[in-house]
Amino acid sequence: MSNIVIMGLQWGDEGKGKLVDFLSNSFDAVVRFQGGHNAGHTIKSKGKTYKLSILPSGLIQNKYSVIGSGVVVDPFTLLKEIKTLQKAGINITPNNLNIADNCSLIFSFHKDLDALLENNKGEKKIGTTGRGIGPAYEDIVGRRSIRICDLMNEDVLSERLKNILYFHNILRAGLGLDKVSFNLILKEILDIKDEIISYSKDSFDITRKLSSKKNVMFEGAQGALLDVTNGTYPFVTSSHTLSSSAFVGGCTPMSSIDKTIGILKAYTTRVGSGPFPTELNDEVGNFLKLEGAEIGTVTGRDRRCGWFDAALVKKAITLSSIKSVVLTKLDVLDKMDKIKICTSYDIDGKIYDYLPNRIDLQNIVKPIYEEVAGWKSSIRNIKKIEDLPENAIKYIRKIEEICGINIDIISTGPDRSETIVVNPEVIK
Ligand code: IMP
Q1: Residue 290 CA, distance from chain mean position
Q2: Which of 21, 37, 41, 101 does the annotation list as catalytic?
Q3: I need a surface site. Which of 41, 57, 322, 350 has the fewest CB within 10 A?
Q4: Is the peptide bond prior to 234 cis by the omega test (within 30 degrees of 0)?
Q5: Which of 110-129 are b and which e, b meaning 16 or more Cβ less than 10 Å from the residue's Cβ?
Q6: CA distance 329 to 199
Q7: What is the model's pTM?
Q8: Digits of tens for pLDDT over the chain (428 positions)?
Q9: What is the Cα–Cα distance from 265 to 399, expressed in whole angstroms?
């Protein structure tokens, strides 16, 4: 094996949790490098279901796991998630979980701001997860974040807290929110700081520890199209979700990453607002939602559903140097008569093979489709690609051809065992 990044190539929820868990056995360590508890990874393993939002999926397989510097950490949610998993029998101690000490923290005032700014946007809202992710990342670039290392000295912590509340209280006054009490927040932090510190490690110590491991997996959260710069801005998350983000947020130098595996769902979904050229607001979209159980892990919101959009995916593949692809939820299409793949867009009479950044053009795209016949049978227990129905193989080959990639693993159901390994090299 080697050091790899695993990331979603659509708008998140591609089924990364299952794949990270499936591949974890081949790795010595798993690292989260961006996002926060806005991520939702569902893992089914040995008859149990685990829902993770901030912890690396590698913990389920008892692998050394890292929350890297690029992650924004809500310390209260983190401790709650640790306790829930421990109760479910998962081993989590400072020996198998480390948090980079330069991770920035999310507080209740970030959440307040997230909610208020969303409400004020009315119909133009982003549809965030409401977890305070955006405001926490704003504080990082505003250089006023409180980081885990600031918890280690009470004078430093007080000074940093005064500094961040100076800004937030001015903002809150302007927005009509109550002032945040310094003493209250300080007490809340002091109550939990020792437990958080017990898991933390200097980010450079983590870098050195990771460099001593042979096979490290960098686990992306969200998906390429939610990248704050290259996604469907402003309807994006606030972190960089492309593979290059693993170098910045994963406590690892660029040279140590060998390749990126992309996860693709066999159709497209999106939670929250924003452009979605292949969205199906009809009975087919509803069928995909029900058949694929497309309900958000974090917020419980229905996911919007549509046909596979190869034009969007091709851009994600190029920007993240994807060398290998995992296709998930193919079984959701088992009952379809016909399946469409969007290959390009007609925008005001001009053909585009990518989604342009201009919002005015995004709003008027007309997808151009190729259609393939469905296979109309269950593929859940099939273990080899050659045993799949002919039309399922045709659909897979069509995606490979249009996107210019190889599909190396196919997921045919939520359980670990429901997986077809097309190219065994990927898991070696
Ligand atoms: P935020 O990350 O909470 O600020 O939300 C910004 C956008 O990203 C919203 O459209 C969310 O629905 C979306 N989003 C954030 N995290 C995830 C995820 O893990 N899966 C899918 N969508 C997400």
Answers
A1: 22
A2: 41
A3: 350
A4: yes
A5: bbbbbbbebeeeeeeebbbb
A6: 35
A7: 0.96
A8: 689 999 999 999 999 888 887 888 889 999 999 999 999 888 877 788 898 999 999 999 999 999 999 999 999 999 999 999 999 999 999 999 999 999 999 999 999 999 999 999 998 899 999 999 999 999 999 999 999 999 999 999 999 999 999 999 999 999 999 999 999 999 999 999 999 999 999 999 999 999 999 999 999 999 999 999 999 999 999 999 999 999 999 999 888 889 999 999 999 999 999 999 999 999 999 999 999 999 987 778 899 999 999 999 999 999 999 989 999 999 999 999 999 999 999 999 999 999 999 999 999 999 999 999 999 999 998 999 999 999 999 999 999 999 999 999 999 998 888 999 999 988 77
A9: 11
Nearest to 413 by CA among 62, 56, 42, 57: 42
* Closest ligand 1 atom, residue 130 Cα: 3
> For ligand 1, is residue 263 a contact (CB within 6 Å)?
no
Catalytic site residue 41? yes
Alpha-carbon gap, residue 230 to 227, rounded angstroms = 5
| Nearest-angstrom CA–CA distance, 190 and 180 | 16
Atom of ligand 1 nearest to the CA of 39: 19
Centroid of ligand 1 to alpha carbon of 73 (angstroms) = 15
State in Å: Cα 279 to ligand 1 middle. Answer: 17
272 lines ligand 1 (CB under 6 A): yes
